[in-house]
Specification:
Blueprint lengths: L1 E5 L11 E11 L4 E7 L2 E3 L2 E3 L6 H13 L12 E7 L9 E11 L13 H5 L3 E6 L3 H12 L5 H17 L6
Helix pairs in contact: 3-4
Length: about 180
């Protein structure tokens, strides 16, 4: 597994007083299209927070169902990358957070089932929708979107870094297809 570690504040682990774990999926169909979430003018991979003592696979499957309505039937899948990011005074002063985001590749031609989704109020307010984007064009689309809408949360940078690795990873045949 590839680890991306970002620690702009040079925080030591003993200074961390909050840890957050998230899971995200690269849902890829047989046409090499990624199923992307889009809300608040930002693209995102489907996924979200791991709840207290929840297994990361349970969280991944729950989040995919909540955001896409797709119910996965896999028994075992491993992440291919993890982004670890340190934040000083976030989300408030005196809080230092360490975020872990685990990324999984899931190949499926199952279509979204919007009647099976459970969007958060933030997703609803952001007009959450699902979009298929070709793997060959996803980076262009994210960059175009940033040019038009900005990148206030830095999500696009994180995604572009991951996509660059993912494409090379796939080309080397290190992800089973």
């Amino acid at each position: 597994m590839k680890y991306f570690i970002h620690n702009e504040y040079n925080l030591k682990d003993e200074k961390i007083n909050e840890e957050v774990t998230r899971v995200k999926a690269l849902l890829v169909n047989s046409k090499d299209e990624l199923l992307m979430g889009y809300a608040h003018n930002v693209y995102q991979f489907p996924g979200g927070h791991v709840e207290n003592s929840e297994d990361i696979l349970v969280a991944l499957f729950r989040e995919i169902t909540e955001e896409t309505g797709i119910e996965l039937k896999m028994s075992k899948i491993d992440p291919f990358a993890c982004n670890i990011r340190y934040f000083k005074d976030y989300p408030e002063k005196e809080k230092n957070r360490k975020n872990y985001i685990y990324y999984f590749e899931i190949r499926t031609d199952e279509k979204p089932n919007l009647s099976n989704t459970k969007y958060t109020s933030a997703e609803i307010e952001g007009n959450f929708e699902l979009r298929y984007v070709s793997i060959d064009k996803i980076e262009q689309e994210i960059k175009r979107n940033v040019d038009e809408c900005g990148n206030p949360l830095g999500i696009a940078s994180e995604m572009l870094e991951l996509l660059d690795y993912y494409k090379n990873y796939r080309l080397r045949g290190e992800i089973n297809e």
